[in-house]
Design a protein that fits this description.
- The chain is mainly beta and 401 residues long.
- The chain folds into 2 domains: 26-313, Jelly Rolls (Sandwich); 331-400, Macroglobulin (MG2) domain (Immunoglobulin-like), CATH 2.60.40.
- It contains 4 helices and 24 strands.
- Strands 2-3-4-7-16-9-10-11-12 form a 9-stranded antiparallel β-sheet.
- The protein is globular, with a radius of gyration of 22 Å.
């Protein structure tokens, strides 16, 4: 049973979070299976090839892509954009995980330039959260798999300054005081065979079509990983050269690395009244037509894969947990959804479990056990607060079938 979040449900989420010392205002988490679908966006009742949308929910989290994300006023509208061209040039697909065929993931793939306006062919496909209001502090996390064929770009006989994976707009391109932050793949050395790295830059726009770097960084101590799943976590605080912060952490199979921790402008420096990120692309694939053509001629696939997207609009959680993204994975409720009972799995010793209904009322409490039988509960959404012996706590969202 999956339905829209009601105002009472949002209130109860906030109540639970405050009870545990975390003033959380919005949270969403989902992968892409087994009840998740990607379809072409409907415009006036007809499929529109320029857009796609994700529907349904992943039972591992029970958050719904439409009612919990797209229709929620706390965050902007979610869409996948192809822009010009059609799905034969740039496409998003739900496909088997390259390393685990039993898992379904989201793939972005560029076969040819699909953006040709302006006389400068490009390829672009992106997931976007648009029409945000006062989004001045947030954190999100997503898993990324970079196709091994992207290493073909090492053979390019010039530098590569932008192959974009994520982008954040604190005033969009055609607005007053445009500013963007981009996470990208770069090849700083012009020599054939040189390594690929992650780069980032904050840019303003003075002349139409031209972006100027206000700040830029490239992490040459971490070579771009391909052919494996990595987790990228991003922290954003709007601010000036002192208060602004953009932090990117990467977790691979070995360790967690801080790719960037920029303390600088995260809005246009001349903006008299910064009002937060208006839209951002947490999942993107965007580069020049020249690179796309080169990959095509080498019979190499220009593709990236995404899984387990999660976002928080929560300054307290950001400040408390931003340096330890792995901590949020230590406590799991399973199965979820559940029928008659559930179990808490955690690295910490469980002291107490509380189950709250959609009005914020505690309806079940159990001490010093990790499992709870709740067969008499009505189907619907519940919150499960887990208190640990070490004094910490964690709130999980669950669905009773």
């Amino acid at each position: 049973m999956v339905k829209s979040i009601s105002s009472a449900l949002l209130i109860s989420c906030t109540m639970l979070s405050i009870e545990n010392g975390i003033a959380q205002s919005f949270h969403f988490k989902s992968g892409f299976e087994p009840n998740t679908h990607l379809i072409q966006y409907q415009l006036n009742g007809n499929p529109n090839l320029n857009y796609a949308d994700i529907y349904g929910f992943d039972t591992t989290s029970a958050y719904h892509w439409v009612s919990d994300l797209d229709d929620n006023s706390s965050v902007g509208n979610f869409r996948i954009y192809y822009e010009e061209g059609d799905t034969l040039k740039a496409n998003a697909r739900l496909v088997p995980d390259p390393l685990n065929p039993t898992n379904t993931v989201l793939r972005f793939k560029l076969d040819s330039a699909n953006v040709t306006s302006g006389g400068n062919p490009k390829g672009r496909i992106q997931a976007a959260l648009n029409n945000n209001t006062n989004l001045s502090a947030f954190r999100f996390r997503v898993k990324l798999f970079i196709h091994p064929d992207i290493e073909t770009l090492q053979l390019y006989n010039d530098s590569i300054t932008w192959l974009t994976l994520m982008e954040f707009w604190n005033n969009e391109a055609n607005a007053s005081y445009p500013f963007r932050i981009t996470l990208n793949i770069q090849k700083p050395d012009t020599a054939v065979g040189s390594d690929l790295f992650f780069g980032a830059h904050g840019q303003t726009r003075v002349t139409t079509g031209v972006w100027d770097d206000l700040w830029k960084e490239i992490n040459t101590s971490y070579i771009l990983p391909t052919g494996e799943w990595i987790t990228i976590e991003t922290l954003f605080f709007e601010g000036d050269s002192t208060a602004g912060r953009y932090k990117v952490m990467l977790t691979d199979s070995a360790s967690t690395t801080t790719l960037f921790d920029v303390h600088n402008y995260t809005h246009h420096p001349s903006d008299p009244s910064p009002d937060g990120v208006t839209s951002f692309n947490p999942m993107k694939l965007y580069t020049s037509g020249a690179l796309i053509n080169g990959m095509s001629q080498a019979n190499a696939e220009l593709a990236v894969f995404w899984d387990d997207f999660e976002i928080w609009l929560d300054t307290n959680v950001l400040s408390i947990r931003s340096d330890h993204p792995q901590d949020l994975e230590k406590t799991v409720l399973f199965p979820n959804p559940f029928y008659d009972d559930f179990t808490i799995s955690s690295d910490h010793v469980v002291e107490k479990i509380k189950v709250f209904n959609s009005t914020g009322e505690a309806i079940r409490i159990i001490d010093k056990k990790q499992s709870m039988t709740v067969s008499d509960l009505q189907p619907g959404f519940y919150f499960v607060a887990v208190q640990f012996k070490n004094g910490t706590s964690h709130v999980l969202r669950a669905v009773k079938l």
